[in-house]
Amino acid sequence: MNRLRRRLRPAQWTLGGFVVGILLGTGLLMLPIAKTGPGGASFIEAFFTAVSAICVTGHIIVDTPTFWSPFGQVVILVLIQVGGLGVMTFASIIGVTVMGRLSLASRITTAAESRALDLADIKSLVLGVLRISLLIEAAVALVLFLWFWLHYGRNPLEAAWIGIFHGISSFNNAGFALFSDNMMSYVADPVVSLSLCVAIILGGLGFPVILQLRKYWGRPLRWSMNTRIVVWATPVLLLAGTVYITAIEWNNPATLGSLAWPARILAGFFQSVQTRTAGFNSIDIAAADDSTLFGMTALMFIGGGPAGTAGGIKVTTFAVLLFILLAEVRGEGVVNVLGKRLSRAVHRQAISVVLLATGLVTACTVAIMLLSDLPLSPVLFETVSAFGTVGLSTGITKELPLAAQLLLCLLMIVGRLGPITFASALALREREVLYQLPKERPIIG
Q1: Does this model's pTM top 0.85?
Q2: Distance (Å, whole) CA 216 – CA 106
Q3: Residue pLDDT, tens place only, 310-322
Q4: Of the residues 39, 48, 159, 320, which has the fewest C-beta atoms closer than 10 A?
Q5: Number of domain units in the chain
Q6: CA-CA distance, 29 to 49, in Å (whole number)?
Q7: pLDDT tier at 149 (50, 70, 90 boundaries)?
Q8: How distant is the alpha carbon of residue 341 from its chain centre?
Q9: First vs last Cα of the chain: how many Å apart?
């Protein structure tokens, strides 16, 4: 089995699946039928959009509702759905639907992509993920359809498309919108804002958490450590982000200052939710204070729950580092988390994820600053937004040179796959060390 796992290299299959999806999406978006007006999209326009869609990010270099035709928008929506489910998970869904079973290779790659702990119940996991996705997307689409039809007077067909597109985009934390100003026209609309927020939060919890909550709702003693961490960390970060953004932007006339106080709170909450790795915006991000951008950058870097549609280093990684820090400050020999002892292998994984993510974001930030001559604040915001698969932008993405846009594409792919998975996929070979060296410790601090 170990030899088979090494030969299959699930991380390489996952990366390869995303690359194939990106290339297919790029080809489809370059067709003349995918673009409004004469001619087709250029390679970089199609490639950047395909990467952003399949990595469920929402970064754009062309205006989605005016540049892409209905066919192009459908392609983007399909890429969002495939990327949100996971390319290998989507392939497994096709396999289950067509053949009624999964091969060992499919189970291994799907388990690696979905962070499953074993191969025994992959089929049930895949079908559960599909049912949950379709149910939540359909519910949000129905609410938005009825609201845009009955309240805003859109014709039923247009209202249905708005509902379907934003239902899928929101649950998958993609942030693509069918309005040129994204959601700024609906900043004070609680139905639109809260419907999107509910879908984003649920998608950001991660499929393992949603499945476990559905099975053991009301019985928290049956929840895993992963579920407990995500469930308590998510509202804490959402509340902290809401208070932080709303307080700083309260009197800023270019963002919240011109709104009535209920709309200010709603907009502050909406933008806090978006830092969970969804890229909708109901205020002008470019007009926000630098301190607001810095706080949002930190929240985007943390991201949402693992094995879902969210990006970032994940709230579980952040929580593990926090518990390690507390244990070290207290002088405890082991790290205990919510009544359980944390494996030392998890310590190494958490530290590795953070160091790899920090190094990559730092390197890309410096490179883009050199390529574009832009200041640190907007560039750092842009790079973390790409790595966190968020899609929020201060508006500089369209103006960046080609090399800088390709760096953002790299960040989106790494952020969607996860730094360790991406690094493992690129590794030339794996080797098992059959010996241990003598211990010695340097001075730390």
Answers
A1: yes
A2: 28
A3: 888 999 999 999 9
A4: 39
A5: 1
A6: 8
A7: very high
A8: 29
A9: 43
